[in-house]
Each structure stands twice: as C-alpha cells, then as structure tokens.
C-alpha cells in the first residue's frame, strides 16, 4: 500500500497535471474521437449525421480524381520544398558561421522573414509574382520572358515552393546554433591531418549536425503536408488552374466549409494523418543509417 506521503505526492501531481490532462481530453482526444465518428457519416453540420460506414473513404480512394490530384500536388510540394529548404538552411548557416563583419546584422536579416506573419508574406509574394510584378521585371532585364506564375498550371507549384524557401531562416538558426556547439578540437585535428575546408565540412560539420537536420526534416515534412495559407491566398479559386495547386488541407477546407461535407472532410483529414504518419515513420526508419549522436555507439 502507498504511504500517506506517497498518496499526498500523487494527489499534488495529478492536481498540477490536471490542466494539461483536461485540455488534452477536451481539446485534442475528444475532437479526434468525434472526427473518426464523423468520417463514417454523411453530415452537413446542420442536420443529424447519417451513418454511411466506410463510404466516404471508398469514394475518396476510388471515385474522386481531385483527391488524388491534391495528394500528388502535396507530395510534389513536400518532395521539393523540404530538401531545398534543408540545403539552403545549411548553406546559410555555414556562411553565417564565418568570422565576417556585421555578421549579427546578416543573422537578423536571415531570420527576419520567419517573424513576418505568413498571410502578410503571401500577400507580398502575390504582388511579386504578378505577371507585371518585380520578379518578371528582373527576368525581363536579362531577356527572359517571365511567366504568369500563379495563373499557369506549369508554374504555380514552383511559385509556392519559392515562397516556402523564404522561411528557411528558422532552420538556419537551429543549424547555426548546432555549429557553434561543435568542438573546435575536431577541426584542429583535421587541419593537422591535412583535410581541406570542404573535407572538414562533409566529414565533421555535417555528421555533427545530423540530429538537427533530422529534426528540421520531420518538422518540414509535417508542415509541407499541411500547407494551407499560401495556397488559399495565392491561388483563387483555391486549386488554381486545372487544380494544379490543389493541396490536401485546402481540399479539406473546401469540403468542410464551402460544401458542408463534414463527414467527407473528416475522412480526408484521417487519410492525411495516415500519409504524414507513414512518411514520418519512414524518416525515423532511415535515420538509423545517417543520424549520429555524440553519445551513441554504432
């Protein structure tokens, strides 16, 4: 049996943890369970739900070409924007780690876009990417005819990927902080052995940064598969020409709040959850081969 002191400690533990427990049950676990049930119904949010079983999932997987288009577009966006963001973040972090003048100013400028609200950033990019916008003006100076970035099916996804790169400052800051933690003795030993700066970067810097790269990869994948604001603001109607920019979350939003197909939208959300889960597990599975921790012995 628990002693009086242990029971009192347990009581205080649950008392202090109760705000989180209540919040988790009410605002996360409860809605998740309700969403599972709603995904098995036909519900317009005004009348009583009508049970349809797996019909919503069957329709999504076998009779909805827009869903597969949105899934492909989301995968395409994630497959390019996430690695590109990682490479640019690593490159910027390596540049900012150099001993140069006013480097603090450069670090601030690199992180500044991350602090700007995404809606404001999307509105700015909408003007920049306009057919007569600044980007096409610059391309015209060098003799390249600029496309209608947001009006042509071929260019709308590259435009969204370009916007995603704008926020690479968050990953850069984490990588730069990790670079500062790499022991200087490793570089000194490499210099004694005659290793070039490029060799030092690939043999010392990158392996030491793999835990942070892995973290950025996971967060980038989750964020890319849930992209919404950029698509909703930059492409009107949502989806753009020929649904070329239709993504999973905008599709979910349209079904739920434009057409009031709440059951169908809930089914989309759980399929999206399954896709994110699969890619996240794949990333964790492969991490054993390339992520190195200082205290880990392989």
Automatic annotation (TrEMBL):
The entry assigns this protein to a family as follows: Belongs to the binding-protein-dependent transport system permease family.
Looking up CDD domains in the UniProt record yields:
TM_PBP2 (cd06261)
UniProt topology in membrane: Multi-pass membrane protein
Q: Where is the ABC transmembrane type-1 domain?
A: 71-283
Q: Which UniProt keywords apply?
A: Cell membrane, Membrane, Sugar transport, Transmembrane, Transmembrane helix, Transport
Tell me the protein's name.
Multiple sugar transport system permease protein
Which ranges does the record mark as transmembrane?
12-38, 75-96, 108-129, 159-178, 209-233, 262-284
Lineage of origin:
Bacteria, Bacillati, Actinomycetota, Actinomycetes, Propionibacteriales
GTP-binding among keywords: no
- InterPro entries from the xrefs? ABC_transporter_permease (IPR051393), MetI-like (IPR000515), MetI-like_sf (IPR035906)
Task: Kindly list the biological process annotations in GO that this record carries.
Answer: transmembrane transport
Enumerate the SUPFAM superfamilies for this protein: MetI-like
> Where does the protein principally reside?
membrane
Where is the protein found, in the record's own terms? Cell membrane
Which GO cellular component terms, listed alphabetically, does the Swiss-Prot or TrEMBL entry include?
plasma membrane
Domain of life of the native organism: Bacteria
């Amino acid at each position: 049996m628990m002693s009086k002191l242990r029971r009192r400690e347990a009581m205080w533990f649950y008392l202090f943890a109760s705000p989180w427990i209540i919040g988790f049950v009410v605002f996360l676990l409860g809605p998740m369970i309700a969403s599972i049930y709603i995904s098995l119904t036909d519900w317009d949010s005004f009348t009583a739900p009508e049970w349809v079983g797996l019909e919503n999932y069957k329709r999504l997987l076998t009779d909805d070409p827009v869903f597969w288009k949105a899934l492909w577009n989301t995968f395409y966006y994630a497959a390019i924007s996430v690695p590109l963001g990682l490479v640019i973040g690593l490159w910027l972090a390596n540049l900012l780690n150099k001993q140069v003048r006013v480097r603090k100013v450069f670090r601030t400028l690199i992180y500044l876009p991350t602090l700007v609200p995404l809606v404001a950033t999307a509105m700015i990019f909408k003007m920049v990417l306009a057919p007569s916008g600044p980007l096409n003006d610059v391309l015209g100076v060098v003799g390249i005819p600029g496309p209608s970035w947001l009006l042509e099916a071929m260019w709308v996804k590259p435009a969204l990927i370009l916007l995603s790169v704008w926020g690479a400052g968050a990953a850069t800051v984490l990588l730069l902080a990790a670079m500062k933690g790499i022991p200087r003795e490793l570089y000194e030993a490499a210099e004694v052995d005659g290793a070039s700066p490029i060799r030092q970067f690939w043999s010392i810097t990158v392996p030491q940064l793999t835990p942070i790269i892995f973290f950025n990869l996971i967060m980038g994948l989750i964020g890319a598969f849930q992209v919404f604001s950029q698509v909703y603001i930059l492409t009107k109607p949502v989806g753009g020409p020929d649904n070329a920019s239709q993504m999973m979350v905008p599709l979910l939003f349209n079904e739920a709040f434009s057409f009031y197909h709440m059951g169908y939208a809930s089914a989309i959300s759980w399929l999206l959850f399954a896709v994110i889960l699969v890619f996240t597990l794949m990333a964790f599975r492969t991490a054993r081969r390339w992520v190195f921790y200082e205290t880990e012995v392989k």
